[in-house]
Amino acid sequence: MSLKNTHEIDIVRVSSSKIDSVDFDNLTFGTTFTDHMFVCDFREGKWQKAEIKPYAPFLLDPSAKVFHYGQAIFEGMKAYKDESDDVWLFRPDQNFERFNKSAKRMAMPEVDEEIFMSGLHQLIDLEREWVKKGLGNTLYIRPFMIAIGSGVIAAPSTQYRFMIILSPAKSYYSGEVKVIIAEHYSRAANGGIGAAKAAGNYSAQFYPTKLANERGFQQIIWTDDATHTKLEEAGTMNVFFRINDTLYTAPTSERILDGVTRKSLIDLAKRDGIDVAVRPVLVEEIIEAAKDGSLKEIFGAGTAAVVNPIVGFSYQDTYYELPKIENSFALLLKEKLTKIQYKLAEDTFGWTVKI
Amino acid sequence: MSLKNTHEIDIVRVSSSKIDSVDFDNLTFGTTFTDHMFVCDFREGKWQKAEIKPYAPFLLDPSAKVFHYGQAIFEGMKAYKDESDDVWLFRPDQNFERFNKSAKRMAMPEVDEEIFMSGLHQLIDLEREWVKKGLGNTLYIRPFMIAIGSGVIAAPSTQYRFMIILSPAKSYYSGEVKVIIAEHYSRAANGGIGAAKAAGNYSAQFYPTKLANERGFQQIIWTDDATHTKLEEAGTMNVFFRINDTLYTAPTSERILDGVTRKSLIDLAKRDGIDVAVRPVLVEEIIEAAKDGSLKEIFGAGTAAVVNPIVGFSYQDTYYELPKIENSFALLLKEKLTKIQYKLAEDTFGWTVKI
Ligand SMILES: Cc1ncc(COP(=O)(O)O)c(C=O)c1O
Ligand SMILES: Cc1ncc(COP(=O)(O)O)c(C=O)c1O
C-alpha cells in the first residue's frame, strides 16, 4: 500500500528545531510535540489551502462551537522507524476511514483522502528526526477536527479546522493494570456516538474512572448500558478474554469503537492458529471462568497501549486475580504485531506503509 | 433572594462600545455578543484572579484537552429588563447548582458560588444597556467552563477556564415546530452524562437532528436508549404532554436534564390548579391519546425557547397532527412565567433576583 501524496501543502519551517531540548528517554505520553503541525480549514462549504507550520497556539472566539457543543473528533496512530532509518505507518487507511465515519456521525464535513494522507506524509517526512529507532519508540500521531465556527446555538458549525500534531512517545501504560467491570456508569448509548472517536466520549469516562482510580483500579471495562451484562471495551482499548485456549472479544457495534489493533490481532491470531471467537462476551461467563480457573488472560488492545495485559478485575466488590501464565497470548500477539510495525517480521497482510 | 456579589474582579473596559452597530430588532440567536466577557482560570488546584475584559478571541494550544476529550460544560440563563429599567435574573441559584453538578460529572473543578454570582452580577451590570425593554427582549447569558490544559492523553485536565459571555436575544425558535419521536438514535445512556449540561451531549444530536430536518421536522423527542418506549426530552427542552386536562412530563433522571423552566412550569401549574403528573410518559399512550383525540398539546420548555408549542409529531412514519386549541396550557403557562420574569406579575415564589 502507498500513501496518496499529491496534495499541495504550504510549508513554513521553524527557524530552529527544539528537538535537542527533548529527553527522549523520559517522555510523558502525549505532552511533547514536534516542531510543526498540519492545518487545513473548512469554510464556505470546502476545504481551504493546507499548511504545515510551526507548532503554536491559535486563536478561537469564546463562542466557538467546539467549546459549547463538543463537535470534535480525533484519531490516534503511530509512526515507527526501522533499522534502515525508514519511517512506517500502520494501516493509515483504517484511521482515515474511521475519521470520516466519526465526522459523519458528528455532522462534520468529511476530509478528502488526499488532504489526510498528504498531510500525514509531508508532516511526518519533515519530522523524521523525531521518530527514534528501537522497539517501543514511536511517534504518536494525532489527527483531529474541531468546530471553529462561532455562535451559542446548538446546531452544527459551518467552519472546521482539521489538524495533525505529532508527539514522540514510549508506551502508554506503566505498571500493572487492574480493572473494574462497570455496574452503574456507561460510556455509550444504543443509538449514541460510542462507535465514533468523538471528544465527548472520553470526558464522559473521566469521573467514573477517577472513582475507579480511588479504589486502586486503573481502568474500567464498560458494559452495555441497558443491562450491564455484556463486556464491551475499556477507555481507549478494545478487550480480549482468553478462556482455556480461545480468545473472545465483543463484536463492534454502534456502542463500541472499531479498533485497528483489535482487528489486526484477530487477523494475526487466526493466521497463526489461535482460536478467536467474535461474539458478545457476558460478565457472567467471565466470572464463572475466573472461578473455575479456565479464564487465563484478559488484555486490552489499542494504538497507544498496543497490548495491555490485565492482572485482575473487580466485580460486585469481589476481586478476581488472573493467573500468571507462561505462554501468554497477549505477549505473543503483541510481539507479532510489534515486529510487523517495526519491519522486523514479514508483513504478510500489507499493513505497513512507508513515508 | 439576592446575589452574593462580594468577589473582587479586575475590570478592563473597552475604549468604545459596539452597541450602536447592533440591530436589536433583527438578532440571530446566539451570534451577537456584548462588549465584555468574564474570565477566571483554574490552575495549581485553585481559582485564580477573576477578570472582566473586552470580548475577544483567546489562544489555546492545539493539544488543549477541550479539543480532544470534550471536557466542557455550560449553562444558559437570561436577564430581563422591567418597565423601570431594572435588570433581573431568573433563579440563578438553580443554574449555579446545575453547573457544579455538571462539573462534578465531567471531573472538572466546581466553581465557587461567589465567583459565579459576582461574575454574573458585575458583568451584567456593566452591560445593562444591552438588555432591552419589552416582552421577548432578553440578554442570553452563557456561563461555560473548558479544559485548557494541554496533552493528548485521555485524562482530566489540571487547568480550566470559566467564562461568562452575553448575547442579546429575541426568542429562539421561529415558525411551527414539528418533531420526530426517536426510534433508533439516542442522546443519553443509563449511567451516562445526559443529566449534565456537557458539550458532548449536544453535538451527539446534530446528525440525527439533521436527518429529521431533511424530513421536514425541526426537533427530535428523545426516548430511552434501551427500549425507545419512554419519552424523555428534546434537544434543549424538556417536554410536556397534555392529555385531556392533565399535564404529563417525565421525571428527571441521569438521562434527562433537570430544566429550570420545566420545574418552574410545574410549580406554576400546581399553584394555579392545573393537574400535573410527573411520571414516565410512554410513547404508546401518547399515540393512543393522539388517536382517540385526548392528546391536546405537546410543548417544549427551556430557557432559550421558553415554551415551545409543538404542532405535530411523527412516529413509525405516521404523522400525528395536534388539534388547534383555544385555552392552551402552553400559552397560559408561558404568559404566567414571562410575566414573572419581566416583573409584570407578582413573584410569589421569590424566583427573580435584581442586578
Ligand atoms: C474507545 C476506544 N476503544 C478502542 C480503541 C483502540 O483502537 P485502535 O486500536 O484503533 O487504537 C480506542 C483508540 O485508541 C478507543 O478510543
Ligand atoms: C438537554 C436540555 N434539556 C432541557 C433544557 C431546558 O433547561 P432550562 O429550562 O434550565 O433551560 C436544556 C437547556 O436549555 C437542555 O440543554
UniProtKB/TrEMBL annotation, chains A, B:
<keyword id="KW-0028">Amino-acid biosynthesis</keyword>
<dbReference type="Pfam" id="PF01063">
    <property type="entry name" value="Aminotran_4"/>
</dbReference>
<dbReference type="InterPro" id="IPR005786">
    <property type="entry name" value="B_amino_transII"/>
</dbReference>
<dbReference type="InterPro" id="IPR036038">
    <property type="entry name" value="Aminotransferase-like"/>
</dbReference>
<dbReference type="InterPro" id="IPR043131">
    <property type="entry name" value="BCAT-like_N"/>
</dbReference>
<comment type="similarity">
    <text>Belongs to the class-IV pyridoxal-phosphate-dependent aminotransferase family.</text>
</comment>
<keyword id="KW-0808">Transferase</keyword>
<dbReference type="InterPro" id="IPR043132">
    <property type="entry name" value="BCAT-like_C"/>
</dbReference>
<dbReference type="InterPro" id="IPR018300">
    <property type="entry name" value="Aminotrans_IV_CS"/>
</dbReference>
<dbReference type="GO" id="GO:0004084">
    <property type="term" value="F:branched-chain-amino-acid transaminase activity"/>
</dbReference>
<keyword id="KW-0100">Branched-chain amino acid biosynthesis</keyword>
<dbReference type="InterPro" id="IPR001544">
    <property type="entry name" value="Aminotrans_IV"/>
</dbReference>
<protein>
    <recommendedName>
        <fullName>Branched-chain-amino-acid aminotransferase</fullName>
        <ecNumber>2.6.1.42</ecNumber>
    </recommendedName>
</protein>
<keyword id="KW-0032">Aminotransferase</keyword>
<keyword id="KW-0663">Pyridoxal phosphate</keyword>
